[in-house]
DNA sequence: CATTGTCCCTGGAAGC
DNA sequence: TGCTTCCAGGGACAAT
């Protein structure tokens, strides 16, 4: 499941492979991927353009094109961007070909991923919240964003308009590291808890990027390689396993239709 | 506005 | 073995 560390890894590894390359052909295998944009319009908007930059914002990949337009891809649950994949991909949805014979394939088993082609990227990413690895993300800023909120902290961490890029796995890991129960109301966190949570979010995400993401489900890097961040998960997807701190079995509850893993002893509600 | 619930989508797992 | 049902979850959207 691509969250911030996975998308950041894809950006980092794709960047040197595609920068400056001109798109010579586009195949739209699955028209659902481009949403309401007709595939002919999508193709003609891309063909002939060069990729001049690649950035990440939250979980979005943003490709700036020479003509001024912007290609934006969200991988959602099972999407991958593969560079020069071997053989045919059963789940290929969009294929970009470059003038020198290379290709980039957007594959997506569950077909939830979305591709945009726009002149104004803010229409797609404009409502996203703060970047947690940006220096502007401070404990004071986090406190401000949680103040007065009554929803469970877990739900607030998943709200992309508050913090951009955290997903289910890393939200659970950050809450465990900060020793905060996922159901605790956001506005009721103490300043000590907010400081711990702030630090944990940064450390968990940074470490996962060092590990090139977590290969849970279908996540792959552009060269087809996997990430190793999941090996360091302490609670996420570890129902019934022993808490590495106290040995208590990890529990799972559902918050906003998302499975939340936590240690009932280390993360007390009160 | 804040919060909560539903839906999309598919393949792997679980149950019968 | 083979069929059916459930589940995973990011984000758009509707309802409250």
Describe this structure in words.
- It is elongated and about 60 Å long.
- It contains seven helices and ten strands.
- β6 and β7 form a beta hairpin.
- It is 26% helix and 21% strand.
- The protein is α+β, with helices and mostly antiparallel strands.
- α4 crosses α7 and α6 packs across α7.
- The strands form three sheets. Strands 1-6-7-5 form a four-stranded antiparallel sheet, with helices on one face.
- The protein binds a DNA duplex (16 and 16 nucleotides) through loops.
Biggest sheet architecture: 4 strands, antiparallel
| Helix content estimate | 25-40%
Shape: elongated
List the uncertain runs: none
How many separate helices?
A: 7
Mean pLDDT: 93
Count of extended strands: 10
Tell me what portion of residues adopts beta-strand conformation: 15-25%
Element-level helix/strand string: HEHEEEEEEEHHHHHEE
Sheet with most strands: strand arrangement: 1-6-7-5
Cα distance, first to last residue? 31 Å
Rg measurement, Å? 20 Å
Look at the helices and sheets and give the structural class.
Answer: alpha+beta
